[in-house]
Structures are given as C-alpha cells and as structure tokens.
Design a protein that fits this description.
The chain is of the alpha/beta class and 121 residues long. It contains five helices and five strands, in the order E-H-E-H-E-H-E-H-E-H. It has a five-stranded parallel sheet with strand order 2-1-3-4-5, with helices on both faces. Helix 2 packs parallel to helix 3. The longest helix has 14 residues. The chain is globular and about 30 Å long.
C-alpha cells in the first residue's frame, strides 16, 4: 500500500511518516501540492493524505488535479487545522476528498482513517 503524505509543515509531515512507516505502509512525501502532483503522476499511489493550506498548490487544487489526472480511484484524506462544519462539508462534498482529519491529529484516529482508505481501495 503506497501512501503519499503532503504537508508544508516539516514536523507534521515527519510525524505522519513516522506513524505510517511504523504501521507497515510505504510512504512518499511532498512539501506542497505541485511536488505531490508530480509524485502522484509518476508513482503508483493508493492513498493521499494532504494538508489544505500549502504554498504553490493548496489541498483543494491538488484534489481536483488528482481527480482530473487519475485513471483509477485514489482515496484522499485532508489533514488540516480547519475545523468548522462548513470546511468539512466543502472538503467532502465539493472538493471530492474521502475523509477529513483535524490537526493536531491523534495517531489512532489517523490509523483508523487510513485503514478505511485501505479497505476502500
């Protein structure tokens, strides 16, 4: 299972990578949406965990580009500090993300949501 983790905050990215590797996943990382899209187009990615607010290309733009450029289903989880109900609705219904985790995240919640993504793909 290949997971692409995308975040411009090095600490968050490192933490996500640490837990996912510990649980046996193959992890690729990117510091922004442009870098993430390049990796997505050149690698076989099953799940994407992406921040919402990033330089160069934000999470919503990345989600749209993935949907426009993917020939197969990819499970997308937004990992963000946005916590309002309107943000959740926007992420899931308008942007096309599959799930949503609020930062700072609990490792067990991350594990559960990634596990749902794994079962889905």
């Amino acid at each position: 299972m290949n997971i692409l983790a995308v975040d411009d905050e090095a600490v968050t990215l490192s933490r996500v990578k640490h837990y996912l590797k510990k649980w046996g996943y193959n992890i690729l990382t990117a510091g922004n949406g442009v870098e993430a899209l390049e990796k997505f187009l050149s690698e076989d990615i099953d799940i994407i965990l992406t921040d919402w607010i990033m330089p160069e290309m934000d999470g919503p733009e990345l989600v749209r580009e993935i949907h426009n450029n993917s020939k197969r289903y990819v499970y997308i989880i937004l990992l963000t500090s946005k916590r309002e109900t309107d943000d959740l609705v926007s992420a899931l219904s308008e942007m096309g993300a599959d799930d949503y985790i609020v930062k700072p995240f609990d490792p067990e919640e991350l594990r559960a949501r990634v596990s749902v993504g794994e079962r889905t793909v």
